[in-house]
Amino acid sequence: MTTPNPAAMEFFLTRRSRPPKVLRPPVPTEAELLPILTAATRVPDHGKLEPWRFLVLEKPALTRMAGLARTRGAAMGLAPERIEKGVAQFTDADLIVAVVMVPRPTDKIPELEQILSAGAVCLTLLNAALASGWDACWLTGWHVHDAAFAREGLGLAAGERVAGLIHIGTAASVPPDRPRPDVGAITTWVRD
């Protein structure tokens, strides 16, 4: 049995994301972000395929992507409020780490396991940022699921997808906590 880590358990029991609209500078420097990214790669990865990669998006790139989101949203015929919500995700941000799911061809590891590994990277990245003293949030949005936006804005290759956009910064305010699941209501014990 591994040694209990009460501080880590307390972190998991009390961790919370911060809405991206309250995140402001300062944001992590490259030197501060590298250990967070390193921690994010310590996830289940069957076959050691590393079916993910990172894009660190800083303000100039975020401004460019906001413009592209506006253009793509209009071209797709989206409602103006939906377009602006997607645009705001970039204009309001100062640092986003895009976790890109990179499927690896193999007969041994199903693509679903590779997708789940990319999701694990997203959550571990979020938690590593929080554990490092930053505030953070994991989002996606219509724009990153649009192939043209993903290709033009993020340079994604065919088959690559965004698993998550991890916003990292310093919270200007802390909204009230949301209700949490009733674990007893969603847990079934199978004993025989």
Share of residues in helices: 40-55%
Mean pLDDT: 96
Number of domain modules? 1
Low-confidence stretches: none
Q: Number of helical segments?
A: 8
Query: What's the CATH superfamily, by name?
Result: NADH Oxidase
Rg estimate, integer Å: 18 Å
Beta percentage is: 15-25%
CATH class: Alpha Beta
Largest sheet: 5 strands, antiparallel
**Structural classification:** alpha+beta
Shape: globular
Question: Between the first and last Cα atoms, what is the distance in angstroms?
Answer: 25 Å
Which topology does CATH recognise? Answer: NADH Oxidase
The helix/strand order is: HEHEHHEHEHHEH
Find the count of extended strands (DSSP E, 2+ residues): 5
The CATH architecture classification is 3-Layer(aba) Sandwich
Brief account:
The chain is an alpha+beta fold and about 190 residues long. The chain contains 8 helices and 5 strands.
Can you lay out the helices and strands and say which pair or pack?
Layout: H1 6-14, E1 23-24, H2 30-40, E2 52-58, H3 59-75, H4 80-91, E3 95-101, H5 111-131, E4 135-139, H6 142-145, H7 147-154, E5 161-171, H8 183-186
Antiparallel strand pairs: 1-5, 2-3, 3-5, 4-5
Description:
- With 192 residues, the chain is of the alpha+beta class.
- The chain is built from 8 helices and 5 strands.
- The chain is 45% helix and 17% strand.
- Helix 2 crosses helix 5 and helix 3 packs antiparallel against helix 7.
- 31% of the residues are buried.
- The model has no long low-confidence stretch (mean pLDDT 96).
